[in-house]
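Summary of Year 1 activities. Much of the first year was spent building the evaluation harness for sequence design. The harness presents a backbone, in tokenized form, and records the residue chosen at every position. We chose the following record to illustrate the format because it has been used consistently in internal testing since the harness was completed.
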């Protein structure tokens, strides 16, 4: 975000700067996995990719993506349902394994996004710089990745006081470093033990560790960028959020973004025929097992109220 926007933004929105060592780490975890993804293209056509690597990458992708969508997003940020303590802890850990930042930072940033969506104060709107082609290109970069490289920290006392008051969440927040190591070395350990070889460990580290992390990063960031620029808008929202169906499965339903911004606390985002929402189905399973309760399922009356007139 530009200095001008920050200066004019709402008071108490920011809480200082990210410490330099942490900021350098952010750059590393953006750049290194991305280089791994670029390297993956020629490797996929040559050597170093096995069915085990694909299986491990898919398994860790599903686990960490759902940790982000069901856990960090729908549960911790928006309170779409209530969860028993073991599930609450599991979701916090699974979301942290996605390496998208510690839980307190993630939730505070996203609540700030909703508070000022597509306006000054939004940490990752693509519309902050204007509507000319050049401004939109700059806005897309900012919404997709640029905002993450900004050192400004969102004020957690303002946007996430409930999590700050939760000892469990403070502990998970502080364990982000070890959990990052675990999400990288976990696939390598499994690959090495299953194949009983260093080569199996190395390729699993590459594909199910680095490549999987950066692929999930860009799927998540595309919801911030693409889903606020193009797509359908069947519901009335106070911003430019839109549904972008090509990302529906990879994002586990997060790209049904228009309904989410029209009614953020709903546990299901894909509510129309054919709109696959894997995250909502997982929440439904949690509810059936008694692990989740007080789920905010959308009703026909509520959807009719926020539907855009034909």
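For this record, the design step produced the sequence shown next.
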């Amino acid at each position: 975000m530009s200095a001008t926007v920050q200066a004019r933004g709402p008071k108490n929105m920011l809480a200082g700067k990210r410490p330099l060592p942490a900021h350098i780490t952010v750059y590393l975890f953006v750049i290194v996995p991305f280089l791994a993804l670029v390297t993956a293209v020629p490797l996929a056509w040559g050597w170093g990719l096995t069915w085990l690597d694909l299986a491990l990458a898919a398994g860790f992708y599903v686990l960490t993506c759902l940790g982000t969508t069901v856990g960090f997003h729908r549960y911790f940020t928006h309170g779409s349902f209530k969860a028993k303590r073991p599930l609450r802890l599991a979701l916090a850990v699974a979301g942290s394994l996605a390496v998208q930042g510690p839980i307190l930072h993630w939730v505070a940033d996203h609540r700030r996004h909703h508070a000022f969506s597509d306006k000054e104060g939004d940490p990752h709107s693509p519309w902050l710089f204007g509507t000319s082609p050049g401004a939109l290109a700059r806005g897309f970069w900012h919404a997709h990745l640029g905002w993450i490289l900004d050192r400004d920290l969102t004020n957690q006392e303002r946007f996430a006081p409930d999590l700050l008051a939760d000892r469990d969440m403070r502990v998970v927040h502080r364990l982000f470093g070890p959990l990052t190591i675990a999400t990288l070395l976990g696939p390598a350990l499994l690959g090495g033990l299953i194949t009983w070889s260093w080569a199996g460990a190395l390729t699993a580290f590459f594909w199910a560790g680095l490549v999987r992390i950066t692929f999930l990063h860009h799927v998540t960031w595309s919801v911030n960028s693409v889903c606020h620029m193009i797509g359908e808008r069947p519901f009335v929202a106070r911003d430019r959020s839109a549904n972008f169906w090509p990302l529906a499965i990879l994002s586990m339903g997060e790209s049904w973004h228009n309904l989410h911004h029209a009614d953020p606390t709903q546990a299901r985002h894909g509510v129309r025929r054919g709109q696959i929402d894997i995250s909502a189905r997982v929440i439904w399973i949690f509810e059936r097992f008694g692990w989740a309760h007080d789920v905010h399922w959308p009703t026909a009356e509520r959807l009719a109220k926020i539907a855009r007139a034909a």
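The first strand starts at residue 14 and ends at 17. Quantitative recovery figures across the full test set are reported in Table 2.
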